[in-house]
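User: Teach me something about this protein's shape.
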Amino acid sequence: MKKYTLRKLFNDVHLWLGIASGLVLFVVCLTGTIYTFKDEVEEFMAPEKYTVEVPANAQPMAPSILIAKLEQELKGNVVSISIPEDKSSTYSVGVAPAKGPEGDKRAEGGPKGKGGEKGKQGKGGEKGKGEGSGGRPATYYVNPYTGQVVGTPESATAAFFSTIMKLHRWLLIEGDAGKIIVGASTIIFTFLVLTGLVLWFPVKRKNWKQGLKIKTNAKWKRVNHDLHNTLGFYSSILLLIMALTGLCWSFEWYRHGLSSVMGSEVFKGRKEKPATIAAAPTTATTEDYIQQANLLLPYAGDLRVSLPADDTTAVVIQKSKTGFFALAASDKVQLNKHNAEPLKVDKFSDKALNEQVVSLIKPLHLGNVYGTFSKILYFIACLVATSLPITGTLIWINKLRKKKKPNKAVRTAGAATVAS
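Assistant: First, the predicted structure itself:
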């Protein structure tokens, strides 16, 4: 009787956990793969909402003039404006319904401004809860040279990605049941990655190089095994990051536990409120706020200006760098609404390492932590993760068939016995 080894234990755990969660993990990984380039797909499907032709020798309208124009046309209060560094991009403007009959009418009939899960900086799509009075702000895409509203986030593509996100997060099952199923499967996925790494290391150390390549000229069973083994190994680190960060949305106990371990609260930014200031006459303009922010944060980047609806709340400006390798982190400045004097400056580079990591939980999960570069890596890793339940199931079926078939020596002996 063969000895039951630790490696056999890992193999059995890997096998049965994979079979138990395979279907759910396939759906979660597939939807994650599709969602990776959500923003890029939406822009491709409706470029007129995101890009404009830059007139020769033209400058964008002054933000204060643009804001006044939009408030008059849309009968609301502008509570946020996102100004991308790219001069050919539209502005994203959040407009809260104004109080009164006209504002209430717009609140009932106007678009709700759903922005999706990612909320791309400079292109808006943020819901902006509580930013203005009279209701939830609606998002509009605006031509910065003419002040014309060119679109809103609502579209068939946006609806498609909203469904993909719901599938990814809770399998379209309302209530906590779907979230728990996805969360439990994610925990299983973490164990699958860890046990898979153990099983990747060969029994004989001299054969370790075999796990780094796919033998394409072999039989399909060997190719399938290599696809599972090798591609799983190469993508393992990113898959672990996705799983460990994704659990923050599934379980509150996990989120609190991670916050305690890291020494910094996960999703802390959601609870942060702007500074409170004393009421006074306002002499500063939106241009003054932007100029002050650029002096405090002297680099090119996307800006998002949050304008308070009252006279006792600070103006908040977030600025982030752009580019193929740009880190998905923003610096934040709080200014006195009345005179644009700086109240607080929060730079990402000044934060402790643990706070930096925790503040990047969302981009670490979504894949845009290092711009388009990391998105490409995440897309490939997600694609591999989607294939793992399939290749793993085929490996299991092949092993079952192998066990049922007698080996060649037994068949030969049996044939000789019959002949005699």
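Now, about its shape. The beta strands are 76-83, 91-97, 138-142, 149-151, 302-306, 315-320, 330-335, 342-346. The CA atoms of residues 41 and 117 lie 14 Å apart. If you'd like, I can walk through any region in more detail.
User: That's plenty for now, thanks!
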